[in-house]
Amino acid sequence: MSGLEDLYREIILDHYRSPRNRGELPTPPAHRVEGYNPLCGDEVVLYLQVDDGMITDVRVGGQGCSISQSSASMMSAAVKGRSIAQARSLVRSFKSMMSIHEQRLDGGDAGAGSDGTTLEVEEAPEPVDPEAMGELAALQGVVKFPVRIKCATLSWNTLSQGLDELETGA
Amino acid sequence: MSAGDRFAAAGTAAPPRPLDPRALRADVPLLAPDRPGGRIVYLDSAASAQRPRVVVEAMDEYYSTTHANVHRGIYAIAEEATRRYEQARAAVGRLIGAPRPEREIVFTKNATEAINLVAYAWGRHELRRGDVVVLSEIEHHANFVPWLMLREEIGVELRYLRLGADYHLDLSDLDRLVDGARLVAVTCASNVLGTVVDLSPIVTSARRAGALVLADGAQLVPHRPLDVRALGVDFLAFTGHKMLGPTGIGMLWAREELLDAMPPFLGGGEMIRDVRLDGFTPTDIPWRFEAGTPPIAEAVGLEAAVRYLEGIGLERVREHEVALTAYAIERLEAVHGDRVKIFGPAPDPLRRSGVISFAVEGVHPHDVAQVLDTRNVCVRAGHHCAKPLMRRLGVSATTRASLYLYNDEEDVEALVDALGEVRRLFR
Ligand SMILES: Cc1ncc(COP(=O)(O)O)c(C=O)c1O
User: Which residues, 6+ apart, have CB-to-CB distance to B100 below 8 Å?
Assistant: First the structure.
């Protein structure tokens, strides 16, 4: 029915109902970073514990729609135990998965959204193998619902920002 | 029933016949039952209404036969354009019982600009540091931000009427709040809760305190009869696109002597009597506040919308909406009461409008709206430009269904059904 099943895959609903890594970490030593989507009020608060370039622990707070919250939950599971470099590469893959599909959908330039939805991808998106994305591939159905892409990318942008802050010592 | 029949029915003394929403939907191209992709169940008129064909036709006809700039041309079509523009002003005035529309109605871009006009032209001129403006916590951002700006700029003090447990404004402390105030700026009806504000005690209290009253009529003027004289307010802001008119046109009604004392708002053409190298003289009201080429075709469309509403009769619109709102609330509670919470007052013929905000337990409003969209049920999800109210309710967003003259029980059933789909998906 109108791609609803594409949007609300069982695995997404599962992460929404039982979010992983929910909670807080003491700061310091953890780093706290907040992301906010002013359009719909979705809010993500990340706590990143990084030791020797490894993300040893992640906690997620905030509130919002099923897409933003399940994406944050999946993201936390995907980056926990990874290095910063691996996490950044995952962020890139995830964001290009979100934009490639939109380009295909619009049949052309995806960089035109006035709300900046697709302008977030700084580099030219590389093709992404959905197989390699694991569970995260479940979120690719979101690209058929352009207004919801921001919900899906919120926690990833927040993660990027957090990693930037950690690396520049901000 | 044709539009002609409905117009003919206006002004008769017979008790109002109930509306026929299906027949009204036939007047609205976007709500056609045979729309490719399925009939749209439009439950978002509080955001913007769907205009009947006559409105678009009037604008088309105007552009095809009459258009020229207003207030300047000597030639016939320019005179006719001016006449049509001013005639729209008269129609709007008639709708709200304005004693002298030709002086008291200012056309703006929307309700937001109408409120800003008061904040700039009256507020900046009249208010000093420490002067008090009273608002309510249920206002639309349009009636918050202009005053918050004056707070930053001039240092005016803002006080707030609070929401009571019954979703009506708590007026128990009214006199104390209003005491010493210069202005009370309050909505006629909440765009989130469906609360219709009882303005009369507010006006009485403001009068006693020597304060002026600005009423935000954006959510009331389209839905029930309103008379500015009976209401006793000083300013009334409202907007065309919520009352079946086009976008791009709104209105400020203000008492003549207030408007006359106000300095201009925007500067430019149309609003001046004379311009010299060393100064200017503004022109008369209401044109003093209409700098630049105004929304002429929009005014023509708006007049058609006003005539359409007059032809139907706003009292009938009110009765229809009151009955349908009671029906909708009863159905939502009966079928979904275990998981749906409504944020708003109980049905009431005078104190509740057809705006119904609700939460589905465990489902975010954006997800609710997304699922409803697959059934062509259009509702709004979000903060509805009322963030202070969202905070007060303790939510970040609500789902909002809003009813208008072309909605009926069938639309309510479509909503109730589609909510069943939401619940199945988000078990
Ligand atoms: C109560 C209220 N006031 C003001 C406005 C602003 O109307 P507009 O956007 O047409 O200026 C709205 C509508 O969004 C409203 O609901």
Answer: B93, B256
Residue A3: how many other CB atoms lie within 10 Å: 11
Q: Is the pLDDT of residue A111 over 70?
A: no
- Per residue, the 3-state secondary structure of B125-167, as one string, reads HHCCCCCEEEEECCCCHHHCHHHHHHHHHHCCEEEEECECCCC
Instruction: With beta carbons under 8 A apart, name residues in chain A contacting B390.
Output: 41
**B385 counts as catalytic:** yes
CATH number (domain holding residue B278): 3.40.640.10
The answer to whether the CB of A30 falls within 8 A of the CB of A47 is yes
pLDDT at B181: 98
Q: What is the B252 CA–ligand 1 centroid distance (Å)?
A: 13
CATH of the domain at B420: 3.90.1150.10
Our count of domains for chain B comes to: 2
Closest CA to B233 of B256, B203, B201, B198: B203
Query: In this complex, do A66 and B364 lie within 8 Å of one another by their Cβ atoms?
Result: yes
Domain count, chain A: 1
Contact B161, B211 (CB under 8 A): no
Which pLDDT belongs to residue A107?
Answer: 40
B173 and B43 co-located in one domain: no
pLDDT, position B234: 98
Question: Global pTM?
Answer: 0.90
pLDDT 10s digits, B355-392: 999 999 999 999 999 999 999 999 999 999 999 999 99
Tokens 């001016």 map to which residue? B82
Same structural domain, B255 and B117: yes
Here the ipTM equals 0.79
What pLDDT is attached to residue B342?
A: 98
Least confident range from A23-27, A45-49, A133-137, B17-21: namely A133-137
Q: How many CB pairs under 8 A join A and B?
A: 40
- The answer to whether A41 contacts B374, with C-beta atoms less than 8 Å apart, is no
* Mean pLDDT of the region B13-19: 73
Q: Which residues sit with their C-beta closer than 6 Å to ligand 1?
A: B 110-112, 140, 142, 187, 191, 216, 218-219, 239, 250, 385
What number is the average pLDDT over the span B219-229? Answer: 97
Mean pLDDT for the stretch of residues B291-316: 97
**pLDDT of A168:** 86
Within this chain, do residues B19 and B73 fall inside the same structural domain, yes or no? no
Let me know: does B18 contact B327? Beta carbons within 8 Å: no
The shortest C-alpha distance from A145 to chain B (Å) reads 9
User: Position A50: which residue type?
Assistant: V
The C-alpha atoms of residue B204 and residue B195 are separated, in whole angstroms, by 20
- Boundary-marking domain end, from B268, B284, B310: B310
Assess whether B347 and B369 both reside in one domain: yes
Contacts of B383 in chain A (CB under 8 A): 41
Domain that holds residue A139: 4-168
**Domain end: B287, B310, B333, which one?**
B310
Nearest Cα to A99, choosing from A90, A89, A108? A108
Mutate to test the interface with B, among A65, A69, A149 (most CBs of B within 10 A): A65
CATH of the domain at A135: 3.90.1010.10
Write out pLDDT tens, residues B267-280.
998 899 999 999 99
**Could you say which of A1, A43, A66 has the minimum Cβ distance to residue B374?**
A1
Domain span at residue B167 reads: 55-310
Q: Which of B385, B386, B403, B419 is catalytic?
A: B385
Sort out which chain A residues have CB atoms less than 8 A from B426's CB and list them: 13, 66
